[in-house]
Write a structure and sequence with these properties.
Its main location: membrane. With about 220 residues, the chain is α/β, with parallel strands linked by helices. The chain has 8 helices and 8 strands. The structure holds adenosine-5'-triphosphate.
Amino acid sequence: MSGFDLSGLTASFNGKRVIGPLSLTVHPGDKVALVGKSGAGKSTLIRLIHERVNRDSSLIPQDLGIVNALSVFHNVFMGQLDKHATWYNTITLARPFARDRAEVNALLKSLGMTEKLWTPAASLSGGQRQRVAIARALYRNASVLLADEPVSALDGPMANSVMTLLRDRFSTSVIALHDVELALNYCTRIVGIQDGQIALDQPSANLVASDIMFLY
Ligand SMILES: Nc1ncnc2c1ncn2[C@@H]1O[C@H](COP(=O)(O)OP(=O)(O)OP(=O)(O)O)[C@@H](O)[C@H]1O
């Protein structure tokens, strides 16, 4: 699966509706940026989409989901935990296989983090932790990327290099982004969220940054 057609998406907290009901169709090859002001419902929508497409997606959540007690290697390896037998995962915990070490190392190299393979995640910086979550999503290699502010802790050049990597590695994606320029440069479709509803849905090619500002 690389596209999806979801309807009846709703979320409420304490009896207050924060998303929907809304429908979202994502075609194979769509690279969707979710934009909108803080609290508009972007993270909630990413979570709702993930609940529906789950195993077919690579997820980068806003809280990253990093396990501090584990090494960088093991955090990245978790991206494929459900693809291996239990015995394989158990052996990997103590003594990772050379093929997996090489694959994870290559991913970390593309993210400028080779020397951190065996570092405990607890001792990483915020930007390094974010890159571990990105490496985990790349390692999972699902057909769809769902990401919530995946480059918010990275400096400008690194943010651009990671967005290029994600664009090239995932043909279909939905990425919540607060940086409108990144959204326009790296995504093919802009979906604007306002008060839990879709207030804008246009190809990026038809838009400039000022067209999106009414959402903020
Ligand atoms: N666990 C929760 N309990 C109560 N309210 C919540 C919870 N999670 C989100 N909300 C509320 O739902 C609304 C949408 O939140 P959400 O995190 O989806 O927004 P967002 O667009 O991703 O914001 P940001 O850009 O700041 O991350 C907000 O009003 C928020 O306060």
